[in-house]
Design goal:
- The longest helix has 33 residues.
- The protein has one domain: SGNH hydrolase (Rossmann fold).
- By secondary structure, it is α/β, with parallel strands linked by helices.
- It is 39% helix and 10% strand.
Length: 467
C-alpha cells in the first residue's frame, strides 16, 4: 500500500471489562433498575389489554356507537399539540429570571415553557441530585410560568434523544444538565455504553503545510492520536425523574478528507457519517443491551456549520484571500450535498426516529484560538470572526437541501421529505453579546431556549401520528 493511500477503519475489540463500572455508576445503576421497572409495566399493560379484549367480547350487546367511542378513546393517538417555535416571534432576555427567557410568537399563541413542566415532573418523582442552575421553589407552585396551567409531561418518560453536533451543542447539553441538577457524564472509550475504539491510520498529507500547522513540520502522529475525550467524543445527561436520556456525539464538520485530523484532541472516526453509524448507533445499541433502553432514539438532532466555516477560512488565509467574501458556488453546493448525505446516513442508522436539522448560532467575534491555533503570528488577518455572510449561506443551503428536492435522488427524496428544521440558531441572530467566549452562547437565553425547543421537538416526535 502506498503511503498516500487511506487504510480502512479498523474496529478493535474492547480491551477492558466495563461491567464493574456499571455497578458503581449511579446513573447506570438507575438506568439498569429502570429496565426491570419498565419490564414489569409492560407485563401489566399486556394484562390490561387482555382484560380489555375480554370485556369487548363479553359486552357485544353494547350499541355500535358506544363501542366506537370506547375504541376511539382508548386506542387513538393523542392529537399532536402545535409547536410554537414554528411561528414567527421574538426572543426575550432576562438574566435574573430563567423562565423569562422565552420565545414570544406574534400570533395569539402563549410563550412556550415546556421545559419548566418537564423539570417539575422530574423533581416531583425524584429530586435533582445536585443544585439546579435555575433553582428556587417555582416548581412547587400551583401554576407554571405566566401563571398558566402546567403542561402535561407524561410523554417525556422513557425517552431518548441523540444530538450530533459541535461544541455549541455540547455546551447546550451541559446547560441542560445544570438546569436539571444532574451530572454531565463523559462517554470515554472505557464507559460501558461505548463501542470498541477504532483506529484510523493517517495519510502523510494530513500532517503537512501551514494550512494545518504553522511550523510546517510533521506533527509526529504516525497513527491516530488518543485525543481528549472530555471535548471531542461524547457526553450524556440523564434526567431520572422522567427517565429521559439526552446524548451528544461530537463531530468535526462535514469535511471528508481529514482536514482536522492534525488536532491533538481528535478522536476517531473522522467523517460525520461514521460518527453517526459507528458512535451514535454504537452507543444506543450498548445502552439497549445494558440498560434496556430503546435502541432507536425518539429524536435525532444534526448540525454542522462552524467547523466547515473555519476550514474555508483557514484555506483562504493561507492563500492570502479575503475571509469576508461570500462562499463560492462550489463550496455552497458541496456543503448542500454533504447535508443530504449525513441525513440519509442518520435515517439508515435510525429508521424509525424523528430527525431534525438544527441551525447553528451566529458567533462573529474574533476567535481566540480553537480553529485557529498554531497559525502564524504575522498574519494580519488571522483569527477572523465567523462570517455571518458565510454562516447564513450555509444555513440557507441546508434549508434548500431539505426542502427543495428537485435534484435529489429517490432515496434522498424519501428521507428528506420526513426531515424538519429546528431554527434555534437563527433565533439567536443578533444575540452575540450573550456569549461566554468567542463561540459559545450563555445559558440565558440560549441554553434555556435550546432545552425548551428540544422538549417541543421531542413531544412532537412522540405524539406524531407516524410515531
Amino acid at each position: 500500500m502506498s503511503q498516500s493511500s487511506v487504510a480502512p477503519l479498523i474496529f478493535k475489540p474492547a480491551a477492558l471489562d466495563r461491567t464493574s463500572r456499571s455497578l458503581h455508576d449511579p446513573v447506570l445503576r438507575h438506568l439498569t433498575q429502570s429496565k426491570a421497572t419498565w419490564a414489569r409495566r409492560a407485563v401489566n399493560t399486556s394484562l390490561l389489554c387482555v382484560v380489555g379484549v375480554l370485556l369487548y367480547i363479553t359486552h357485544t350487546e353494547l350499541e355500535q356507537s358506544t363501542l366506537s367511542e370506547v375504541r376511539e378513546y382508548y386506542f387513538s393517538k393523542p392529537t399532536r399539540p402545535a409547536n410554537p417555535y414554528a411561528s414567527e416571534g421574538y426572543l426575550s432576555v432576562n438574566e435574573s429570571d430563567p423562565h423569562a427567557n422565552r420565545w414570544h410568537p406574534y400570533s395569539d399563541e402563549p410563550a412556550p415553557a415546556l421545559w419548566a413542566s418537564v423539570l417539575r415532573a422530574s423533581w416531583r418523582d425524584a429530586g435533582p441530585t445536585r443544585k439546579s442552575e435555575i433553582g428556587g421553589r417555582w416548581h412547587e407552585e400551583s401554576t407554571g410560568p405566566d401563571s398558566r396551567d402546567w403542561d402535561d409531561a407524561a410523554w417525556a418518560r422513557n425517552r431518548t434523544v441523540i444530538v450530533v453536533g459541535d461544541s455549541t451543542s455540547r455546551m447546550n447539553l451541559k446547560y441542560l444538565c445544570e438546569m436539571a441538577g444532574e451530572p454531565f457524564v463523559e462517554l470515554d472509550w472505557d464507559h460501558p455504553f461505548s463501542p470498541s475504539p477504532p483506529t484510523e491510520p493517517l495519510q502523510d498529507d494530513y500532517m503537512e503545510t501551514s494550512l494545518r500547522d504553522s511550523s510546517g513540520k510533521p506533527s509526529g502522529m504516525p497513527v491516530t492520536p488518543a485525543g481528549n475525550p472530555n471535548t471531542h467524543q461524547a457526553h450524556y445527561c440523564y434526567v431520572p425523574g422522567v427517565d429521559l436520556l439526552v446524548m451528544q456525539i461530537f463531530n468535526f464538520g462535514l469535511d471528508e478528507d481529514g482536514f482536522w485530523k492534525w488536532r491533538k484532541t481528535y478522536t476517531p472516526p473522522y467523517k460525520m457519517e461514521d460518527r453517526i453509524s459507528y458512535l451514535a448507533k454504537g452507543y444506543m445499541d450498548r445502552a439497549a443491551a445494558i440498560a434496556g433502553r430503546n435502541p432507536s432514539p425518539d429524536l435525532v438532532y444534526l448540525s454542522s456549520a462552524l467547523w466547515d466555516s473555519a476550514k474555508f477560512q483557514r484555506e483562504d488565509i493561507v492563500l492570502d484571500q479575503s475571509t469576508k467574501h461570500p462562499l463560492s458556488t462550489e463550496r455552497i453546493m458541496w456543503y448542500r450535498q454533504r447535508v443530504r448525505s449525513v441525513l440519509v446516513t442518520a435515517r439508515r442508522a435510525f429508521p424509525s426516529s424523528s430527525i431534525k436539522w438544527i441551525s447553528n448560532s451566529y458567533p462573529h467575534k474574533p476567535s481566540n484560538g480553537w480553529f485557529f491555533e498554531n497559525f502564524e503570528d504575522n498574519k494580519s488577518n488571522k483569527r477572523p470572526a465567523q462570517s455571518e455572510i458565510r454562516l447564513e449561506q450555509m444555513q440557507a443551503a441546508a434549508r434548500s437541501a431539505i426542502t427543495e428536492l428537485g435534484d435529489a435522488t429517490p432515496e434522498e427524496v424519501e428521507v428528506l421529505s420526513e426531515v424538519t428544521i429546528c431554527p434555534w440558531g437563527r433565533m439567536l441572530l443578533g444575540y452575540e453579546d450573550w456569549q461566554i467566549d468567542d463561540l459559545h452562547p450563555t445559558l440565558l437565553p440560549a441554553g434555556y431556549l435550546w432545552a425548551d425547543m428540544l422538549m417541543y421537538d421531542l413531544r412532537e416526535a412522540v405524539l406524531s401520528p407516524a410515531a
